[in-house]
Design goal:
By secondary structure, this protein is mainly beta. It contains no helices and 11 strands. The strands form 2 sheets. Strands 2, 4, 5, 6, 9, 10 and 11 form a 7-stranded mixed beta sheet that branches. A 4-stranded antiparallel beta sheet has the order 1-3-8-7, with no helix packed on it. About 35% of the residues are buried.
């Protein structure tokens, strides 16, 4: 079965850094488009970073220059390096894998993804 397990969240001060990890199994990880999606309290899920099977990455404007998505195919693990964290980054962060019917145009939509982890909480506060 498909499994996605996030880890690495926690409480950090503004300006700090965290690295999130997602351990994937049960599907062709190296051939799939993967995404980090976050949900803040009272808000919907929004994709923040995407990486495709060729290693091409894309970021939502609010995290460009601060977040880096990467993957280690040998370990079936997805990463999100988060630097210069802001209070507005506080959210539950989810690892997600693409649907079979997928379009780059909708890459930041939660509806573009079929499989989800349980999430890891990131809280940025002084």
């Amino acid at each position: 079965e498909v499994q996605l397990v996030e880890s690495g969240g926690g409480l950090v001060q503004p300006g700090g850094s965290l690295r999130l990890s997602c351990a994937a199994s049960g599907f062709a990880f190296s051939l799939s488009v993967m995404s980090w999606v976050r949900q803040a309290p009272g808000r919907g899920r929004q994709g923040v970073a995407v990486i495709d099977s060729e290693g091409t990455t894309s970021y939502v404007d609010s995290v460009k220059g601060r977040f880096t998505i990467s993957q280690d195919n040998a370990r079936n693990t997805l990463y999100l390096q988060m630097n210069s964290l802001e209070a507005e980054d506080t959210a539950m962060y989810y690892c997600a894998a693409q649907k079979s019917q997928w379009s780059w145009f909708f890459r930041f939509s939660a509806a573009a993804y079929s499989y989800w982890g349980q999430g890891t909480q990131v809280t940025v506060s002084s």
